[in-house]
Amino acid sequence: MHSRRLALRIVVTALALQGLGACDVVFNSKIDKTKAEALVKSLLTQENITPTSVTCPDDQENKKGVTFECIAVANGTEVHFGMEVIDDAGSVMAKPRDHTLVVASVEPEIKADLQGKGHQVATIDCHGNVWVAIKGATVTCDLVDEAGNAYLWSATFTDDKGTHEHSVKAK
Fold it and tell me: Are residues 69 and 110 in the same domain?
């Protein structure tokens, strides 16, 4: 069994990705819910995360400083976004509340880390396409070595930034 603390490279949806961090989403005196949801979806899509749904609350006031939260679901995992109206014209800034990890980016890092420790990893399958780093949450990957032996890699996040402790156990 191998367990240690390792900070994975975290793919975080930035506050202002390629100019899309703020968007005019005003509809009369209320924020246009559909446009706010489209902003969140666009930010996630730029990070290769395909949400199955995005929900923002109705009737948010169009007034500088108003904050609210939108929730996206990707592969059964909720990703929360803090939304803030940044001017009276209806521009909204979207900022992810949670650190997200794109599984396709994490798998090669896990494999390289284990191979650096002498494990001969033939295949790795981490479940889903996005992990959300929430303290105490556990994620797993199925590993097969070059001899065909199956293992379970398991990690528990020790903070909300992606730092974790992990172990590898024979199946």
Answer: no
| pLDDT (0 to 100) of residue 49 | 81
User: Taking a C-beta distance cutoff of 8 angstroms, is the pair 54, 41 a contact?
Assistant: yes
Tell me what pLDDT residue 137 has: 85
Structure tokens at 136: 């105490």
Alpha helices in the chain (DSSP H): 33-46, 103-116
Residue 145 in contact with residue 151, Cβ under 8 Å?
yes
Give residue 166's domain range: 4-10+101-170
Residues 79 and 122 placed together within one structural domain of the fold: no
Residues 112 and 92 reside in one and the same domain? no
Q: In what order do the strands lie in the sheet with 77-85?
A: 22-24, 91-96, 77-85, 67-74, 53-55
Quickly count: other Cβ atoms within 10 Å of residue 94's Cβ: 25
**The token pair that represents 56 in the structure block:** 């923002």
Domain's final residue, options 97, 113, 144: 97
The model's pTM:
0.62
